[in-house]
Structure formats: structure tokens, C-alpha cells
Design a protein that fits this description.
Number of helices: 14
Largest sheet: 5 strands, mixed
Strand order of the largest sheet: 3-2-4-6-5
Number of strands: 9
Oligomer: single chain
Helix content: 40-55%
Shape: elongated
Length: 471
Amino acid sequence: MKTTHVSFICLAIILVSFFSAAVVDAHVPVRISIKFILDANGNRPATGALNTDEEINAEFTAAIDILSRLNSELTVERIEFVDLSGLSQWYGTSAATDAGRDAVRNAALASPAAFHWRSDAINIYINGGPSSAISDFPPNNNIILMNQGCGNQPSCILHEIGHSLNLMHTHETSGGNGDACGDTITDNKTWTKNQLAQNNFGCLYLDCSAAQKGAVDLVYNNVMSYHVDEPQTRLSPCQMDRISSQSDGDKNWLLAKLPVYVDNSRFVLFQLGTFGLPYTSLQNALDAGGITNRVLVLQQGAYTMTQETLHTNVEIVTRSGPSTVSHPGVQSYVLPVDLENSKHPRVRDAVRASQDEERNGRKVIEDAENAVKTAGKAEEKSAIRAEAKEKQKIHRDKAVKGLLEAEQYAEKDEKIAIQLELAQRYRDAGDYERAILYFTKVAVGTDQPNLKQVALFQIDTCRKRMSRGGQ
């Protein structure tokens, strides 16, 4: 089965057998505008949790990483940093109560230019107050006021955006499921992890079952909890659905890219492509049209596309887990594979020399295996194979040199085909730095969208392997 040729600008599905291309950072961005309210001298706070650009950037990086690891289709996009002068009367406004937040919003709505108020983003105002932070729930979810004492880690900003997207604290009431999600256990903001386990399951955390520990961890380490002694990096499936539903409802003013939802696990009579009324197949979404410059959001699963190509600019992202898109018998991209017959003589000669070295390397291994059959001791067999591998490596290194020479003289798709081959060989040899270099050359040089995605996906894969020490 061949891979599907789809003209996607970005492809963010974890693809298994049918696709080989993905861009893992393609998501639906929630627009965020950051404003620092300066003091009478035009300064930000000298100290605090969120008084520098670097601290804000770190919070956004953490938020993006958390949402990505949770397989959310959403991400957060900081569209600007703005320092606001002339508003020092608001420099110490407390985020401890609704009153401070509402006062800032009312002033901003009255003087939008002075406050750099945005109607197409969540406005985050940061000042020098000593308290934490406060946001607002829909339909007034367009403002967050942040002081310098926010304790949520690693991203206080994500915690507050969670409220803007209709998430409540995990401890919202003591009656159980007070956060409106049935997949989180009863919480209290003062409980330790052991108390959370005891009050829900009657056991100390270490004595609980794996499933019980998982339920405790989901709440204790929840983005929306008050248990700040451990990283807050989790959201439940219900919470994920709530932020998807809310952001989709607010998409016309809040989102930088408009989502079109597809979920083949549901039966929906009226399919509108919204989170609540998704298309039930990828092909239904394509047939409905109107997806140009939008993001197709596939619920975790396997999808089939019956048309060969998609002549539009569209991104695809999977949510909740990996998805696959299949279409048998269609090529993903086209590159020449017969460079030994290139019209350019130097390309032709270098490629043929490379092929000769590859063939000689295979012959070395073949001869070694024949010799092993007649060898006596295990040590002798191991020595024969080790020597053969060393000789094969020499031939393969020479084969790569031949391709590098061919690259110097090749043009257009011939050059890209050689660069892709070099990238693949470096990757398979564990030389990820060179692999990234050559996959980048392919991504930059090609005008075939799906080939670009192949290269970008491989770049990401190589980077992950490097971070894991080559694994």
C-alpha cells in the first residue's frame, strides 16, 4: 500500500503505515495578548514571578508542551508583548478578587487604545500587585489579571487560560465532581496526596492500586488544581473536551486558525464540523468543502480518504491520541530514482560509483556468512562477522562520498532526491545532526507539500532521538 498524496501545508497526525509525514507542532492556536502595566516611572516590577519577558516565555513554552503531550489540538500563541505607560494607577490593582479584574476590564473597554485592548484575543494584564492571578469564565472570558505571586507551576498562564476556556478548579466544591467533570475525584485544595487518596479510596497513596494512584495523580497534578508542590501538567478527558468545546464556540474571535472537527467514533445526524456536531468521516469533511486555510481536527482513530489529492491549503491535527489516514495505491511524492541514468555525466558517474560501493559492501557480508558456515568455534564466527562489518562500513562510507559528489552537480529534483537519500542514510547510521541538516535541505528545496512534510517529520524524529541519546 502506497502513501497518500495530499497537498497539506501542515500534517500533525502521528502516522503509522499509510502516511510518513507529519508536523508535530501544527495546532489550533488560542490568541493571547500580553500587556505589562508599568509603574509611574515606566518600570515593570523589579522582582516577581512574571516580571520579565523570559519568565513569560518560559510559561508559554511549558503551556505549549503540556497541551502537546496531552494530545490537545489546541496550543497557545502569544501574539504580542506590550508595555503600557500612563496607567500607573492600575499598577498595584489586586488580582485577589473579581473587583480588581473587572475594574481593569471596564477601564480598558472605556479606553481601548490606552490599554491596547484586543477584541480578538484573551487580554492578559500583568502588574506589580502581590497577589496571584484571576481570569473570568465565559462569556466574559476575554481578560486575565496577573499579579506577581502566582504559584501554579510550570505555567500559571495555562491555569488561568483554563478558566477562560471553562475549566473550574478541581476543588471547586466538596460535593464531588464540583469541577463538572465526572472523571476527576473529589478534591480539596488543602489535602496532601495521601489525604486525597484516603478520602477517595481509603488508602495511603503508596498502598493504593495503580488505577487509584492514577486517579489521584490526575487531580493532584492537574493544571487546574491548587496542589503546587508538584508540577501541574495533567488534564482529564472531560477537561480536554470542555476546552475544545469552549474554544470552538469562541473560534471567531479567539482562535488564530479555525478548526473543523472530524470524529468517526460518533454518530451525528447533522454534521457541521463543530466540536459538538463533527463530521463522522474525513471524506465527509472534504466533500462538504469550506476547509481552505482551516485545521482539520481528527479525533483519535483511523480514517480513509477516497479522493487522490486535496487541492487546498489545510492543516490536519489529531486529538486525544494518534490517527492514521489511508488511501491505497497513491504516491506521496515524486522524485527521480534512476540517477544512474542522469543526463548530467558527473551526477551519473558519481551515482554509479556509489552503487558499486554499496554492492561491494553487500558482497562482503555475503562472503562472510558463507565463511561462517564452515567456521568452527563461535569466537571465529564472531571475528569473521566483525571484520566483514568493518569492511562494509568502509564501502558504505565511500558510497556516501559518491552521493555527496553527485549532490554538487545535480539540479532540481535530482539534487533533492540525493539530499533525501543522504538524510536517510545519516539517520539510519545514527548521525542525527547530519540527518537534520539534509532533511532541512529537502524541506527548504522542494515545492511538493507532502515531501516537505516528510522531511519536517523526520527532522522532529531525529531531534527526539538525539534528546533520548539516540534511542
